[in-house]
């Protein structure tokens, strides 16, 4: 199963809606990192609101994917971590070090926009008018 990767200018949005097998998780990682490089993405929002459980493998995949994206020059925000998922990650000793977290997608996109502006990459792409955050 491939996870859809949406493009908003030079921002990529990924929403993981189902539990992934190990193979699906690696495909997700490969697809997202390739897309970041392909469009020279400035930001990535990974929405995990629909996930009730994140095991240690999936936490590592998300963390590694965020780190890889950052190495390619994209800011990364993980959106929608559920309370039980946060509790489980802390109990397992796992952290999402490759990205900051936001309560929801709106907040995550706002964080990305602020970070991109702070680092001086104001050019979000041709679809700037379609950017979903109000100034």
Give a description of the structure.
With 135 residues, the protein is of the alpha/beta class. It has one domain (5-121): Transcription Regulator spoIIAA, CATH 3.30.750. The protein has four helices and five strands; from the N terminus they run ββαβαβαβα. The protein has a five-stranded mixed β-sheet, with helices on both faces. Strand 4, helix 3 (83-91) and strand 5 form a beta-alpha-beta unit.
Query: Segments where pLDDT lies below 50 for 5+ residues?
Result: 125-135
Mean pLDDT figure = 87
Distance between the termini: 37 Å
- Sheet/helix structural class: alpha/beta
Name the strands of the widest sheet in spatial order. Answer: 1-2-3-4-5
CATH homology superfamily name:
STAS domain
Put simply, the count of helices is 4
CATH class: Alpha Beta
Shape: globular
Helix content bin: 40-55%
Strand content: 15-25%
Order of helices and strands: EEHEHEHEH
> Total strand count, please?
5
Radius of gyration: 14 Å
CATH topology: Transcription Regulator spoIIAA
Known CATH architecture = 2-Layer Sandwich
Number of domains: 1
Largest sheet: 5 strands, mixed
């Amino acid at each position: 199963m491939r996870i859809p990767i949406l493009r908003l200018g030079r921002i990529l949005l990924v929403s993981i809606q189902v539990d992934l097998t190990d193979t699906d998780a690696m495909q997700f990682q490969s697809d997202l990192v390739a897309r970041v490089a392909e469009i020279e993405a400035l930001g990535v929002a990974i929405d995990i609101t629909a996930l009730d459980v994140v095991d240690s493998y999936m936490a590592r995949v998300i963390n590694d994917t965020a780190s890889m994206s950052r190495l390619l020059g994209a800011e990364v925000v993980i959106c929608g971590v559920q309370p039980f998922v946060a509790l489980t990650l802390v109990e397992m000793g796992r952290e999402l070090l490759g990205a900051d977290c936001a309560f929801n997608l709106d907040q995550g996109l706002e964080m990305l926009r602020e970070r991109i502006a702070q680092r001086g990459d104001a050019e979000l792409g041709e679809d700037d008018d379609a950017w979903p955050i109000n100034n």
